[in-house]
Amino acid sequence: MHRRPLNELLRRYRAAWPDELAQVERFAAFANEHDDCLLRSCVPGHITASAWILSADRTRCLLTHHRKLGRWLQLGGHVDGEPQVELAALREAQEESGMRDFTLARWAGADLVPLDLDVHEIPARGAEPAHDHWDVRFLLVAGRGQELAMSEESTDLRWFADEELAAVTGEESVLRLPRKAAKLRW
Predict the structure, then answer these.
(1) pLDDT in tens, 147-157
(2) What 8-state DSSP symbol labels residue 153?
(3) CB count in 10 Å sphere of residue 54
(4) Which domains does the chain have, with CATH numbers?
(5) CA-CA distance, 82 to 79, in Å (whole number)?
(6) Within the chain, how many helices (H) and strands (E) appear?
(7) Mean pLDDT for all residues in the chain
């Protein structure tokens, strides 16, 4: 499995977010220890990609109420072998929102840098054992004038102002995304 693009994203992330060195090192170690880390068949866990989506005017963020997990989350999912995980984040954003037009925010220069890295456990479900999702998160801005269309993976799909987020989620892994996005100059 070709992990060079992932390792390059992690290198750029390390430079952009120096206070998160321990998290970057965990990600790099996991990716280097598992040749199949980009596939959901990687038993201990696998790389996933998600998108913190802002409205075109950058005043609201898009969350989905995840059907299986029963929580409000950013949009995203499995990379399914895609070595350029940002393309998986775009694909998931399109599939789960019904929108097609997004801009990947490039905020630390010309090269793409993820907004966040997060490791979270996915509970066992049916024959699938509990495992970790090693989530690489990107900042996307939706193009103007697009209608939302909810996928089967969701029970709801809605735009929220930052100040509304605490009313729908207490998950630090979600709540830190607007804080990090607010720090960026792009």
Answers:
(1) 999 999 899 99
(2) T
(3) 22
(4) 4-183 (3.90.79.10)
(5) 5
(6) 5, 8
(7) 94
